[in-house]
Amino acid sequence: MGKQRAPDGSAPTKLCERCGKEFSRSNFSKHTCNKPRKVAQTRKTINQKWWAKHRDAAVAK
């Protein structure tokens, strides 16, 4: 079948099989329908991880 040629001045586009949206091939890495969303960490979990990592140094003071 081959690659589609885009008109001058624009990147060729591709149709996403999952969501049906069309996106440009130069913008492929930004197309996020199949990437899991990262949930932001709460301050509580950040502090717990810090404490687990630095417990010995903090208690020794």
Report the uncertain regions. Answer: none
Radius of gyration: 23 Å
Mean pLDDT: 81
Q: Major sheet, described briefly?
A: 2 strands, antiparallel
Could you tell me the strand content as a percent range? 5-15%
**How large is the count of helical segments?**
1
Residue share in helices? 25-40%
Distance between the termini: 69 Å
Number of strands: 2
**Tertiary shape:** rod-shaped
Major beta sheet, strand line-up: 1-2
- SSE string, helix = H, strand = E? EEH
Protein name: C2H2-type domain-containing protein
Task: Please give a structural write-up.
The chain is an alpha+beta fold. The protein has one domain (13-60). Helix content is 30%, strand content 10%. The protein is built from 1 helix and 2 strands, in the order ββα. It has one helix at residues 43-60; strands at residues 13-15, 22-24. The protein has a two-stranded antiparallel ribbon. A hairpin with a 6-residue loop joins strand 1 and strand 2. It is rod-shaped.
